[in-house]
Design brief:
heterodimer, A: 325 residues, mainly alpha, B: 330 residues, alpha/beta, 7-stranded mixed beta sheet, 4-stranded antiparallel beta sheet, 15 strands, 25% strand
């Protein structure tokens, strides 16, 4: 038995089913809609001469940087802003306008807590239960391949499918965003790492970063969050053996996860829920955490713990349970 | 059919599949209790029982889908529970229905299952497709196949790993007579020409009779010792005869000279009904050995009786089971 062949089998089944095409279609249609919407919104606001305005701002910034009375924390910010404006002027880009790369970067944040996990659920909730529904589980588990290997191959294929979905999402967001807002600007400097301290934003944690590096990080986090959701959905698929039930359970959990922080913001224990941990890119890029103590590192740890427990439980059940009519 | 010859040669054959004391409980109900049998190399082994007798539960334990609460399964001497992968390498099976991936083509299905085997299985796809007469439809989606075609594709799939034993659960279910004939022919030729042992379950005695060398009967979760099909048929009420003739009372008298007449159904001590036997053609059940039937017919006609019908009823599985166990209810 060759494990890569088993994964190939599972990938073949994912690719040949209609749901894969549906996921691609959802991504393309949704991103197209968002791009169109932001494009129309921008048209109304940006008709000014940004070249002149940017040059005026740069002159003002240069003056403040030379001024010895400027405090050092502000100096850092002014230098960054000056470099940012210079970058955009050099490339003839509007510094205040959205660019294709910026749109793609922003998509990571917005997609990480609902859209991408949802698509992960579409794949995962069906990957074991469909074999039960079709009756093919009886063949799959009577071949000279241990049950643990069968499930491992499904898990690997699921991870692959989710990875492809996240990549595809980023790619489509960039392509569509590029059509509307231009394709250039990947190495524009941006600020990241905003972190709240007692009084306000802690300036020492802020860093300037090329946009592409920031985007890779954000997509990496969105990918990790989707993988963990996929692992949890795999468990529901194994336990419930019904695609509809598994999908319903997971979608309900996701929706509850987006409601709970708003309804009960003071409930601190919710930071241990996997759904609260999902918007990893938001936590990373510095939105104020909804619950004290919920940092990127903490959220990653929470998700990893949930995923590991779910995978362990899925294997335990899958390798032991009788397959009956 | 050379049932006797086949069973005689297989009696000395090696044991390929051995079930011992298989027991499975669902809650307090014992679905399968103490089921034991051996399947020998090259024989077609029938597993006969009415629906709900525990056939499918037994088969699920044979192929590792369900764990027995007690007892064990050995395939080529390998214990299924502890050596699942090595043991299942010798098995091809269809459990319940030939469920394959309907959104894949026949070829894709075979490739899928070939990839789960050790070596060379992909190279056998064409040959097996030809064997089950599916070569021309191999690149069509399985969703366009008829049940018979899916059953044949399922058999091709089961044969991919060059198994020593083929386990087929009710292969005749849902097939038309032509389809049943094809499957039967295929099963017999697999056993005869390739030396593959075949384990076939069915709820139809006629099916088992035509296909199998030996048979085990399962009834309410329990089995009897496996016996050659011919022996079983010989033991089971083979001399029972049903005659409809008017007037019945005189007919019974004539028949009584050839064999023991059993009490007429529904008559009992009822006077009116006994009266009716003279007017109506009631069924008379009697034990008449086959070689005396022509003589009996001539006697009935000579006595001036109107013979409406004469038949040998097929014993129900329940009858067979009771007959073989000597009437003890299990």
């Amino acid at each position: 038995m060759r494990f890569p062949s088993l994964v190939e089998n599972e990938m073949l089944k994912i690719a040949k089913q209609r749901r894969f095409r549906v996921v691609v279609l959802i991504l393309v249609a949704l991103i197209g809609l968002i791009v169109y919407g932001s494009f129309r919104a921008r048209e109304r606001f940006h008709e000014k001469n940004w070249h002149v305005e940017a040059q005026e701002r740069m002159a003002w910034l240069q003056g403040r940087i030379r001024d010895s009375r400027t405090p050092p924390t502000a100096l850092r910010w002014f230098r960054f802003e000056l470099a940012r404006l210079q970058y955009h002027l050099d490339r003839d880009l509007d510094p205040d306008a959205i660019s294709g790369p910026l749109f793609a970067r922003a998509f990571a944040n917005h997609a990480s807590y609902l859209l991408l996990p949802l698509l992960a659920i579409v794949f995962a909730s069906d990957i074991v239960s469909a074999e039960f529904a079709q009756g093919t589980i009886k063949l799959l588990l009577t071949r000279p391949v241990g049950r643990a290997w069968v499930l491992a191959s499904k898990l690997a294929a699921l991870m692959l499918a989710i990875t492809l979905t996240v990549l595809l999402g980023g790619l489509v967001a960039y392509l569509f965003g590029g059509v509307a807002f231009g394709y250039r600007g990947w190495d524009a400097p941006i600020l990241t790492g905003f972190r709240a301290n007692g009084q306000g934003v802690d300036p020492s944690s802020i860093r300037a970063l090329a946009l592409w590096k920031d985007a890779v990080l954000a997509y990496g986090l969105a990918w990790f969050a989707s993988l963990c959701v996929g692992a949890i959905a795999l468990l529901t698929s194994v336990v419930l053996r019904s695609t509809a039930a598994a999908m319903g359970t997971m979608v309900a959990a996701l929706i509850a996860g987006s409601i709970v922080p708003r309804l009960a913001p003071s409930w601190e224990a919710q930071k241990f829920l996997f759904v609260t941990a999902l918007p990893l890119p938001d936590y990373y890029s510095g939105s104020p955490p909804p619950i004290p103590g919920l940092t990127v590192g903490f959220a990653v740890a929470v998700l990893a713990a949930w995923a590991a427990a779910a995978v362990a439980a899925a294997f335990w059940i899958f390798t032991r349970r009788d397959v009956l009519a | 059919m050379s049932v006797n010859g086949a069973s005689a040669s297989s009696a000395t054959g090696q044991v390929v599949l051995s079930a011992s004391n298989l027991t499975k409980r669902f809650g307090r109900r014992e679905a399968v209790a103490d089921v034991s049998f051996d399947v020998r190399s090259g024989e077609v082994f029938g597993f006969l029982g009415p629906n709900g007798a525990g056939k499918t539960t037994t088969i699920r334990m044979l192929v590792g889908l369900a764990r027995p609460d007690r007892g064990s399964v050995r395939i080529r001497g390998l214990d299924l529970a502890s050596h699942f992968e090595e043991a299942m390498a010798h098995v091809g099976c269809i459990v319940e229905a030939p469920d394959l991936y309907r959104y894949l083509t026949g070829r894709e299905n075979l490739l899928h299952f070939a990839r789960m085997l050790d070596s060379g299985a992909e190279g056998r796809i064409e040959e097996l497709a030809a064997l089950v007469a599916l070569s021309e439809r191999l690149d069509d989606r399985v969703s366009t196949y008829s049940l018979g075609m899916r059953q044949r594709l399922g058999i091709a799939q089961a044969l991919l790993g060059n198994p020593d034993i083929l386990i087929l659960d009710e292969p005749a279910n849902g097939l038309d007579p032509a389809g049943i004939r094809e499957i039967r022919h295929l099963v017999r030729s697999l056993a005869r020409e390739r030396g593959i042992s075949v384990f076939v379950s069915s709820h139809l005695l006629s099916e088992i009779e035509l296909m199998c060398d030996r048979v085990a009967i399962i009834h309410r979760g329990r089995t009897l010792a496996a016996a050659p099909v011919a022996d079983l048929l010989a033991r089971v009420s083979s001399d029972r005869l049903l005659v409809r003739a008017v007037p019945a009372a005189r007919a019974a008298e004539v028949i009584g000279r050839f064999g023991e007449v059993e009490p007429v159904q529904g008559v009992g001590d009822d006077r009116d009904a006994a009266d009716a036997t003279n007017r109506q053609a009631l069924e008379i059940s009697a034990r008449v050995p086959p070689e005396r039937v022509p003589e009996l017919l001539r006697a009935l006609v000579a006595a001036g009786l109107d013979v409406h019908s004469i038949e040998r009823p097929e014993a129900s599985l329940e009858d067979i089971f009771l007959e073989v166990t000597g009437g003890q209810t299990v």
